[in-house]
Specification:
The protein is an alpha/beta fold. It has 11 helices and 17 strands.
Length: 387
């Protein structure tokens, strides 16, 4: 969907975060199709007019990741600010508001992606516009606005494996929904598909077949009993494991020859993913096949890192409050922190965490405006401190 002419006029060269968020909501980038190209090109043209150098990375047809840079200097790593342009589908339940309009009602901006996380992207851009008008950057700024984050950071992974020169970074800010409360990291994600094969037969003669569902059922029971045997991580706590989907059989009067289920593991910095996979393979045995669908390591940042202390101070929090602030969900930070050699990575955005992926998703207008001020302060203070 193309933004309306009025929105273009209001936003170009300006910093109205409500207007920009509404415009981004107007682009239907919902999964599984995604189709972030129009939104990425719109932002690219807008940022180019503000003096940013623009590049694109195509993950798939119609799916673009945008890279925008301004004020970079040789030998001085810039700050990286990142967010994703795709959203999850609308879901089966009807919306009370139009999901791709950006309805502002009672101080709340409704629409798919308002919280997760087009509001965060808009706030970052508006903050950069304001910051660059006030001060020259120390190391500059690099935006990375990705495609296909929701299916498992696929756009960021494609970018990491591409020939794009991504340079260095001093720190990373991920604008995922946190209600403007900073977090030092998040758990890792290891998502598996476990499947079993059998031999079909008539259900009245099951001895002639081989039931794949029974194999899967035995494997699910072993997953339920699986224990990580690891100490609590100071930042991330304990790992979790969950079976969230089971599929098997085609009709009730046949022996099923295929069945599968999903496993969602949330990991901590004390776990090695390769070791977990090897243990699960041993415990489930040869009856099943295991496929890794998502493999994202945890994001961890020390509360004592100067950048972390700066961000928490700007948010009115002290280091003691920062130590145990970790998120259960995964972000592109898992990919980007590795790309940039483990630099401090903070997750901070205006969206409401509880609104992510929900029907009638919204973000509070006051938090969008507050995020612009926070991001601007981070940019200016980062430059002042030479981080």
């Amino acid at each position: 969907m193309r933004p309306q002419r009025a929105d273009r006029k209001r936003i170009t060269g300006g910093d109205d975060v409500i207007a920009l968020t509404r415009t981004l909501i107007g682009f239907d980038t919902s999964g599984p199709r995604g189709d972030e190209e129009a939104a990425a090109m719109f932002l690219g043209n807008m940022l180019a007019a503000d003096g940013f150098t623009i590049r694109y990375n195509q993950f798939a047809p119609g799916r673009l990741t945008l890279l925008a840079e301004k004020g970079l200097k040789a030998g001085v790593p810039p700050l990286v600010m990142t967010g994703h342009l795709d959203t999850v589908p609308l879901g089966a339940k009807p919306w009370k508001t139009k999901p791709f309009t950006g309805t502002l009602k009672a101080g709340k901006l409704f629409g798919r992606g308002a919280s997760d996380m087009k509001g965060g992207v808009a706030a970052m851009i508006c903050a950069a516009q304001r910051a660059f008008r006030r001060a020259a950057p120390h190391g500059g700024l690099r935006f990375i606005f990705t495609a296909a984050e929701e299916p498992g950071c696929l756009g960021a992974k494609h970018l990491a494996g591409s020939s794009q020169k991504l340079g260095h970074a001093s720190a990373i800010v991920v604008g995922e929904p946190t209600a403007n409360i900073p977090f030092l990291g998040h758990k890792g994600g290891l998502f598996l598909k476990v499947s079993a094969s059998g031999r079909t037969a008539h259900s009245s003669m099951p001895e002639l077949g081989e039931n794949a569902i029974y194999k899967v059922a035995r494997a699910i029971t072993r997953i339920e009993r699986f224990r990580f045997d690891v100490e609590r991580d100071e930042l991330h706590g304990l790992p979790t494991i969950n079976v969230g989907r089971v599929v098997g059989g085609e009709n009730p009067n046949s022996v099923p020859d295929h069945a599968e289920f999903s496993v969602d593991i949330r990991t901590t910095a004390r776990l090695d993913h390769a070791e977990i996979l090897a243990r699960i393979a041993r415990e489930l045995g040869p009856e099943v096949t295991i496929e890794t669908c998502v493999n994202l390591t945890p994001v961890s940042t020390s509360a004592e890192a100067p950048f972390a202390r700066l961000v928490f101070s700007l948010c009115g929090l002290d280091a003691a409050e920062a130590r145990h602030k970790s998120l259960p969900y995964v972000t592109d930070g898992a990919v980007l922190q590795q790309i940039y050699g483990g630099v401090p990575t903070i997750i901070l955005g205006p969206g409401e965490p509880a609104q992510a992926h929900r029907t009638d998703e919204f973000c509070e207008a006051r938090k969008l405006k507050a995020a612009v001020a926070l991001y601007e302060s981070i940019l200016l203070r980062t430059w002042e401190l030479g981080l």
